[in-house]
Amino acid sequence: MLKKIFGSVDAYKEIPQRDDPLFAPIEWDKLPRHVAAIMDGNGRWAKGQGLLRTAGHSSGVRTLKGILSTSIGLGLEALTVYAFSTENWKRPTTEVDFLMKLFTEQLAKEMQEMHEDNVRIRFIGRLEGLPKNLQKQIREAEELMANNTGIRFNVATNYGGQDELVRAMQKVAAQAAQGNLKPEDIDEAMVEGLLDTAGDPPVDLVIRTSGDQRLSNFLLWQSAYAEFYFTEKNWPEFTPEDYVDAMTVFAKRDRRFGGLNKK
Ligand code: FPP
């Protein structure tokens, strides 16, 4: 079983069941289908604790495990997390190297448990730009979980929303160049099918920790009608209880998708 973590990266707790007190505030018929999380503030949290920025990323993994297991308990269809953007290469090499190693190690360590929990992991982004050993680990994990039917867990790594749209347009242009495509063949469904998240429901809720209120090139197309939940808490401090709070805020939103509400 994949378990929820508290305390240290290696201390786990079970996936919460529906009757868990944690879920008492949940309106089960008003949950998002797809949640996207911008896991911001690892560095600031670490600095505040007198630790290295890298320690913040290790603590961020602990939070992520708690949020994934809570998402499974909630029965969400998809969770997409922003682990590394196309812009994050501008950081010092030591931090970039640390993150790549962290992704590789955590994936190796957790993939069996995620598989047992029926998780379907997928890495989204320009994966060919990642270190070879991480690419190999990603392939292994994706292959292991390819036939699972549970939550879709997308990890955005070397990901940028604009880059994703550029890659989709290149695929369209390639088909057009072969004479297989007329301009009127291009519609929303086609574009959606060419994105890294093909097959996933649209994003209903974007959560961003650490105070900033922006999308930072994350899931630009998929978040067209998403609701936003911002919190001042840094990602390492964000708990399953905070996540449940985001769900209750979401349940109260009036989503009109450009139309009028039915009241
Ligand atoms: C943003 O905080 C966080 C990141 C760039 C890295 C996020 C990665 C993890 C939480 C680990 C995920 C692990 C796996 C296995 C997918 P920041 O560094 O920008 O913080 P700051 O804004 O305070 O500097």
Textual characterization of the structure:
By secondary structure, this protein is α/β, with parallel strands linked by helices. Helices cover 39% and strands 14% of the residues. The protein is built from 7 helices and 8 strands, in the order E-E-E-H-H-E-H-E-H-E-H-H-E-E-H. It has a 6-stranded parallel sheet with strand order 5-6-4-3-7-8, with helices on both faces. A two-stranded antiparallel sheet has the order 1-2. The N terminus is likely disordered.
The radius of gyration is 19 Å
H/E topology pattern: EEEHHEHEHEHHEEH
Give the low-pLDDT segments.
Answer: 1-12
Mean pLDDT: 93
Strand arrangement, largest sheet? 5-6-4-3-7-8
Shape: globular
Distance between the termini: 43 Å
DSSP, total strands: 8
The portion of residues forming beta strands comes to 5-15%
Largest sheet: 6 strands, parallel
> Tally the helices: what do you get?
7
Q: Helical proportion?
A: 25-40%
Bound molecules: farnesyl diphosphate
Task: Give the class from helix and strand content and strand pairing.
Answer: alpha/beta
